[in-house]
Amino acid sequence: MTATTRADRLRLLIVRNAALVGMPALLALFLGATVAIHPEFNSFDAQSLAMAALPLAFAAAAQSVVVISGGIDLSIGSVMAVANVLASSTMEEASFGRSLVLAVLIFAGGAVVGAVNGLLVVVSRVPDVIVTLTTGFIWGGVALLIQERPGGGAPDEFLDLGTGSLFTPWLSNSLILLVVAVAVIWLPVRRSKLSLLIYAVGSDRVAAFRSGVNIGRSRVLAYVIGGLFSAVGGLGLTMTTGIGSPRAGVLYTLSGLAAVVIGGVSLVGGRGGVVGPVIAAFVLTLIPSDLIFLNIDPNFGQVIQGTLIVLVVMLGGLATLLRRRP
Amino acid sequence: MSAPGDAAAARPPAGLGAVLPWLQRNTIVVLVLLLLAFIGCVEAVKPGTVNTIWLSNTLLFAAPLGVLAAGQTLVMLTGGIDLSVVSVATGSAFLMTTTTLRFGEGWAVGVGLALGVIVGLINGVGIAVLRVQPLVMTLGTGLMTQGIIIVYSQRILSTRSLVPEFVHQLGSARIAGLLPVDLLLWVPIAAATIFVLARTGFGRLLYAVGDNRVACLLAGVRVWQVLLAGYMTCGLLAAIAGIVLVGNTNSADLGLADTYLLPSIASVIIGGTSIFGGRGGYAGSIIGALILTVLNGLLTLLDSPEPIKQILYGGIIFLLAAAYTRLTD
Question: What is the ipTM of this complex?
Answer without folding.
Answer: 0.84
